[in-house]
Amino acid sequence: MTSSPHIVILGAGLIGLSTADSLLRRGARVTVVEREATVMRGASFANSGMIHPSQACNWAGPANDLAVDAAVQDLALRSMTLLQDRMTGLGLTAMRSRAPGCFQIFDHNADADQGFARLQARGIPVERRAKSSQTFDRPALFFASDRSGDARLFGDALARSVVTQGGEIQLAAQAPKIEMHEDGRATLVVGQDRCTPDGLVVACGAQSATVLRAVDIDLPVSPVRGWAADFRLPEGASVPDVPVMDASSRSALTRFSDRLRLSGTWGEDSVTPLLDRWGHIAPDFMAGLDAPIQVWSGLRPVSVAGRPYIGQTRVSNLWVNTGHGHMGWTLCAGSGALLADMMCDGRADTRFALT
Ligand SMILES: Cc1cc2nc3c(=O)[nH]c(=O)nc-3n(C[C@H](O)[C@H](O)[C@H](O)COP(=O)(O)OP(=O)(O)OC[C@H]3O[C@@H](n4cnc5c(N)ncnc54)[C@H](O)[C@@H]3O)c2cc1C
């Protein structure tokens, strides 16, 4: 690749923006192309905010592959350090200094005990906690090393920084798609414009597989819907200051600076199961909330393998950074840095290869 390569990134979610940021810091010329009118409108828009290396396991597959989980956890730990540094660099000091930790709550003691044993065996830092008001009187695990923060606030700040660093972000791009150039490289087509950059990165989240299908590349990533309902912070009620994750519904209650968010569930087609579940877990607390100020749903880009795809495709200038499933906020900074290392410095990491 030339000394100052031109890289085009398709998709301005957490992953595309983090990739852009990392590439700019390595001296690349970067253009981000996004089909929506603003950045961060995909799965990154209203997630649960947990930066949770503790959850580095396959939520989609029937059984976990321990080597894959270890690779994701490794990336997550590197990512958390990079993410916290980036928060500081972007002036997000309140986010950087949020109370550490996440709870995971269970219906029964036996489930919590089983989860504790499984995570301990994998070397994940975890504490078994008794029922308390912070866990809505449910048996719990506590992950003291996990963190949290408002992903959208971060992504918006990162987008501004990308532009300040000289990157370009093209919004509302007209039906961007990829075609093969006659020289065997990938070309980006946006309306009447065509461009064959040194590197073209697909970071389109749950749409990545569709985008790549146009050039006959099979990406085993599928969309899995999740929901979020935001509420005004209730006056007088005690709200846990770290996220509380419900193991059985794969959802969480997270307090942000200006709102409270219930978010998650896995493949449901409405917000009702999420609200019903928390009505069951915390009936008094839920009864004290006003109607939601925002209800949203987004599609997680879930990879069959239980780990993201980060690296080059069989087309020389075409790269992928996608398939982060329930871990995209946790993994964004590390994934961006890893792909930038690959593209600029020739680093290889077959653990995340698209094979
Ligand atoms: C309810 C919910 C809760 C979650 N909670 C957490 C959590 O607590 N912690 C955590 O680590 N992760 C969490 N996640 C997962 C995380 O949010 C995702 O993994 C992450 O947002 C994926 O980022 P992305 O950039 O790959 O995709 P997206 O954010 O979806 O971004 C993809 C972008 O590509 C654009 N795009 C698509 N097609 C094209 C095209 N053809 N041309 C140009 N642009 C295109 C889209 O418009 C979008 O802007 C949660 C997800 C959900 C849904």
TrEMBL record:
InterPro entries: FAD-dep_OxRdtase (IPR006076), FAD/NAD-bd_sf (IPR036188)
Annotated FAD dependent oxidoreductase domain residues: 7-342
PANTHER family found in the cross-reference section: D-AMINO ACID DEHYDROGENASE, SARCOSINE DEHYDROGENASE-RELATED
Biological process according to GO: D-alanine catabolic process
Gene3D superfamilies (UniProt xref): D-Amino Acid Oxidase, subunit A, domain 2, FAD/NAD(P)-binding domain
Listed GO CC annotations: cytoplasm; plasma membrane
Family: Belongs to the DadA oxidoreductase family.
Sorted UniProt keywords: Oxidoreductase
Pfam families assigned to the protein according to its UniProt record, in alphabetical order: DAO (PF01266)
Organism: Algimonas arctica
Protein name: D-amino acid dehydrogenase
A single GO molecular function term of this UniProt record: D-amino-acid dehydrogenase activity
